[in-house]
Write a structure and sequence with these properties.
Structural class: mainly alpha
Number of helices: 7
Helix content: over 70%
Mean pLDDT: 80
Order of helices and strands: HHHHHHH
Distance between the termini: 38 Å
Low-confidence stretches: 33-38
Length: about 160
Amino acid sequence: MNRTTWTRFLLAASLALNLGIVVAIAIRPSPPRSVAIAVQPRHLNLQDYLELSVEQRTKWQQLEPAFLHELAVNWQGIRQHREALVQQIFATTPNRTAIDAEQAAIAALQGAQQQRVIAQLLAERNLLDEQQRKRLMDLLLSRYSQETTEEELLHRD
């Protein structure tokens, strides 16, 4: 074989191998869902799940809009800093000072977000009776135990 034929053969073999890997990933069955996730739909109407009274629903609905808006704004900031962080890490010449600054900005936004979530949960807790608190706590704990970060998903087999 001459060099051109050999190169074409290697290219065809490489493409076939890559295509085989893509097909294998695409047809791989998804892992079975755990019972906890199957019992709790992903988009659960929390007010119905907690069986809030009319009065509780009114108060709950007054708490939500500002919280959800702040959360969305905060997530947008986190996403922007994560993108900048990844760009800095994979730059031709990574700038450690810029990387550290992006990481610190992300940490600060995450800290502020956690404080918002805690304040919201405390406000919601005050609206609930003991049984509703238990249901909400159990729901949160089961969801948190099932969470996987995007980074973890990228690095799994």
